[in-house]
């Protein structure tokens, strides 16, 4: 319901109904929508972090193309499972310090991944590439909410898989 209606438009009653919970139960744990959104978003960030840790052992020694494919598949799966992620990330009520901390933590996780692929991305390039990959995640999250990107026989945008792989390729 948050994904479909947007953060501001979704009501606690709709959120409770979508979760299969009573509104009273929801309010017992979350007195307002923002604490609920913050808790859900923190859980989603923790899921990404766990995925990055698991991916690190799987990516050790793989080439850049395989790494990009593995990362894309995992992030796509994440977005399919956590459809409210993009909306929650963009909410205006989000604490700027939380945003800064989450981005820094995720950049560090991606940075570690870039150090274990073969060949490893040189240290001076990792920070920029990590930021670029996370921006790609953000783009994928937004694209995952768009129902129709093909207004003509020619797609309006390249496939997310192609768009996501581009910053990964070390040339």
How would you describe what is shown here?
This protein is elongated. The model is unreliable at 149-171 (pLDDT under 50). With 171 residues, it is mainly alpha-helical. Helix 2 (12-19) packs across helix 3, helix 4 runs parallel beside helix 7 (96-116) and helix 7 (96-116) crosses helix 8. It is built from nine helices and no strands.
In short:
Helix content is 68%, strand content 0%. With 171 residues, it is mainly α.
Radius of gyration: 18 Å
SS-based structural class? mainly alpha
Describe the sheet with the most strands: none
Low-confidence stretches: 149-171
Percentage of residues in strands: under 5%
Overall residue-averaged pLDDT value = 82
Terminus-to-terminus distance? 42 Å
Series of H and E elements: HHHHHHHHH
Number of strands: 0
User: Into which percent range does the helicity of residues fall?
Assistant: 55-70%
Structure annotation, total helices: 9
The coarse silhouette is elongated
Topology:
Blueprint lengths: L1 H4 L6 H8 L3 H7 L3 H27 L4 H18 L3 H5 L6 H21 L6 H21 L16 H6 L6
Comma- or semicolon-separated keywords:
68% helix; 9 helices; 171 residues; mainly alpha; 0% strand
